[in-house]
Amino acid sequence: MTTTAKQTSPAHLTQPGHPSRRGRPAKTHDNRAVRAWLRSYWDRWDFSATNPRAEDALAGAVNLRTQGDTGRGLSINRLFHVLRSLDTITTAGVAAVLSCAKSTAEAYTRAARVASGVLEPLAVNSPPGTAPVEAEDWEDFAVPDNISDGV
């Protein structure tokens, strides 16, 4: 007679596709276009100097409040970091990027989804920034022979 051991580990029960897993799948938001666009800027300050309308969108997303939300305000710098770091915005991804509590991650996830939705048309239709996209894009530049030693 064969018996199957019932695995009751909480980690096992939360695996996607497990028959006893309850609830709906996690909400996700595709952020690839916005992430690629934001990574073409050196930092948030370079981004905001070039795109004041987009900076206003970030400020608006940070100031969003749900009914009954009495928590502290969110940081535009941290929201920019989230948008620049994740291809897919999920609460778990935001919590990992920011190393924060679940409630804080949920607030930043809501703000990131709104900001990404507003920034996506700008990302698709705007020219990229001036920063190299990846570190591998750096090249050694030749130094001209006619540079003097300050004499």
Quick description:
By secondary structure, the chain is mostly helical. It is built from seven helices and two strands.
Structural description of this entry:
- The chain is mainly α.
- It has a domain at 27-127.
- The protein has helices at residues 10-13, 32-38, 44-50, 52-62, 76-85, 91-98, 102-125, and strands at 29-30, 88-89.
- Strands 1-2 form a two-stranded antiparallel ribbon.
- The N and C termini lie far apart (93 Å).
Q: What is the mean predicted local confidence, pLDDT?
A: 77
Instruction: List the uncertain runs.
Output: 1-7, 133-144
Question: Structural class per helix/strand content?
Answer: mainly alpha
Shape: globular
Number of E-type strands: 2
Order of helices and strands: HEHHHHEHH
Strand order of the largest sheet: 1-2
Any idea what the radius of gyration is? 22 Å
Helix content class: 40-55%
Helix count equals: 7
Distance between the termini: 93 Å
Query: Can you summarize the main beta sheet?
Result: 2 strands, antiparallel
Question: What key attributes describe this structure?
Answer:
single chain; 151 residues; mainly alpha; two-stranded antiparallel sheet; disordered N terminus
